[in-house]
Design brief:
By secondary structure, the chain is an alpha/beta fold. It has one domain (about 1-250): Metal-dependent hydrolases (TIM Barrel). The protein has helices spanning about 15-25, 40-50, 75-80, 105-120, 130-140, 155-165, 180-190, 220-230, 235-250; strands at about 1-5, 30-35, 55-60, 85-95, 125-130, 150, 170, 195. An eight-stranded parallel β-sheet has the order 1-2-3-4-5-6-7-8, sandwiched between helices. Helix 5 (about 130-140) links the parallel strand 5 and strand 6. Helix 6 (about 155-165) packs across helix 7 and helix 8 crosses helix 9. It is globular and about 45 Å long. The relative contact order is 0.15. Bound molecules: zinc ion.
């Protein structure tokens, strides 16, 4: 399996990062897309990738960071994004749930990153919260050439159809285990080539939420729920979602 969205450079892993990687490998998660979402965090992501050949990177400016990052940082982001281990731009998008940044700042960075992704031929990793309509409208207008993923997908069948039309995938994580009927139905009926797995570690631990920190080694809990919804065996679910992740991010075999 590939964890297509995690934050393993997060300080919450400083005490036991080696064990986190060991547990991931033991549970069948062999490759990772580390999402480095702002200046300072970019460098930590590259350090992690240097240490772990199984780590690939998405680099971008998170909507919640966009208020404190000057647009001049776009040049540095472009340099980072040309690194061979970088497989995507993001996470970017809009977040109107938290008010860490103005709408103006969020949109400016979102549009700049959509342009950068197309310039470099990379897919985009989309974060949205309370901003689905605005995000989808912008994506439908710009139609990123290499597609992308709606990270932390928690929407309905209608949104699946809209994502499909612009060749976007659905990032399935802990939320899939929380028992949302509309999401369950959307995932049950979505075209199978849209589905990719992610943890968003250290956030969004799958049920049962007992550890207060998520990690890639818990991805089998999401896989198990996906198997229930699709009537798939674990082997089928693994091979389908891994193929989709490789296809989207162009990640070579480990
Ligand atoms: Zn994230």
């Amino acid at each position: 399996m590939i964890d297509t969205h995690c934050h393993l450079a997060d300080k919450r892993f400083d005490g036991d990062r080696t064990h986190v990687f060991d547990r991931a490998h033991a549970s069948g998660v062999k490759q990772f897309v580390e999402v480095a979402y702002g200046p300072g965090i970019w460098e930590q992501g590259f350090a992690l990738a240097r240490e772990h050949p199984s780590v690939y990177l998405a680099v971008g400016v998170h909507p919640s960071e966009s208020g404190k990052v000057p647009m001049e940082a776009l040049e540095t982001l472009r340099d980072h994004a040309r690194h061979p281990r970088v497989v995507a731009i993001g996470e970017t998008g809009l977040d109107f749930y938290r008010d860490h940044a103005s709408r103006e700042d969020q949109e400016r960075w979102f549009l700049a990153q959509l342009a950068l992704a197309d310039e470099l031929g990379l897919p985009v990793v989309i974060h949205q919260r309370n901003a689905l309509e605005d995000v989808m409208t912008l994506l439908e207008h710009f139609r990123p050439a290499a597609g992308g993923v709606l990270h932390c997908f928690d929407q309905d069948e209608r949104t699946v159809r809209r994502a499909r039309a612009i060749r976007f995938r659905l990032g399935l994580g802990g939320v899939l285990t929380y028992g949302h009927a509309e999401l369950d139905e959307a995932v049950r009926t979505a075209p199978e080539d849209m589905l990719v797995l992610e943890t968003d570690a250290p956030y969004l631990e799958p049920q049962p939420r007992s550890l207060r920190r998520n990690e890639p080694g818990l991805l089998p809990r999401v896989l198990a729920r996906l198997c229930e919804l699709r009537a798939w065996t674990p082997e089928q679910a693994e091979s389908i979602t891994t193929r989709n992740a490789r296809d989207l991010f162009r990640i070579p075999l480990g």
